[in-house]
Design goal:
The complex is a heterodimer. Chain A is mainly β. Chain A has no helices and eleven strands. Chain B is an all-beta fold. The mean pLDDT of chain B is 93. Chain B has strands at 3-5, 10-14, 19-21, 24-26, 32-39, 46-52, 60-61, 64-69, 74-79, 88-96, 107-109, 113-118. Classes of the chains: A mainly beta, B mainly beta.
Chain lengths: 114, 119
């Protein structure tokens, strides 16, 4: 059981380039999330999805787009990368059963924009 | 919008002693869930403990317990008998539980507290 898998693990982009981060979960979870982690700022929510075909903005959505065409996948896109988007990105998923099931996280993607 | 605040950027504790990490949150919702996550240097996020807002009893998981003060919107984590393996970044998190609300399912984290354990 793989859980939550993020690809790629590392990436270096030049300013202005585009890329897509893929998150895949095999737990049949309804909810999926994308976060960025920067020193001293914790995990900030970029976008999230509460089901296939739905997405919602988080705290820091500017410069990012997402899609949830399939329940098991949640894609994060950077259309024109900027140095300010250098960060560690985490994907997470959860199933909101009664009792508040916790979120399961991927291993993170370290992105550097030069 | 819900916010989560961890006012202690860093904490330290001697091995075998007790330490408490603070977390406060702001919400107008009545139905929500609170979590503490641990992030060791490996970057993997690990659930430590969870608390449902409708439960008055404080959650406990072995050496980890919480002090949940709903009226004060406070959710602190107590680590007893601290071990070297407890050294990590700790995050407090809030998830909305109001079905149909605009923030339903949104999971918000605090800034984190780095815990150092001295032998």
């Amino acid at each position: 059981n793989a859980g939550v898998t993020q690809t790629p693990k590392f990436r270096v982009l030049k300013t202005g380039q585009s890329m897509t981060l893929l998150c895949a979960q095999d737990m049949n979870h309804e909810y999926m999330y994308w976060y960025r982690q920067d020193p001293g700022m914790g995990l900030r929510l970029i976008h999230y999805s509460v089901g296939e075909g739905t997405t919602a903005k988080g705290e820091v959505p500017d410069g990012y787009n997402v899609s949830r065409l399939k329940k098991q996948n949640f894609l994060l896109g950077l259309e024109s990368a900027a140095p300010s988007q250098t960060s560690v990105y985490f994907c997470a998923s959860s199933y909101p059963r009664a009792g508040g099931t916790e979120a399961f996280f991927g291993q993170g993607t370290r992105l550097t924009v030069v | 919008a819900q916010t989560v605040t961890q006012s202690q950027p860093e904490m330290s504790v001697q091995e075998a002693e007790t330490v408490t990490l603070s977390c406060t949150y702001d919400t107008s919702e009545s139905d929500y869930y609170l979590f503490w996550y641990k992030q060791p240097p490996s970057r993997q996020m690990i659930l430590v403990i969870r608390q449902e807002a409708y439960k008055q009893q404080n959650a406990t998981e072995n050496r980890f317990s919480v002090n949940f003060q709903k009226a004060a919107k406070s959710f602190s984590l107590k680590i007893s008998d601290s071990q070297l393996g407890d050294a990590a970044m700790y995050f407090c998190a809030y998830r909305s539980g109001n079905a149909g609300g605009t923030s339903y399912g949104k999971l918000t984290f605090g800034q984190g507290t780095i815990l150092t354990v001295h032998p």
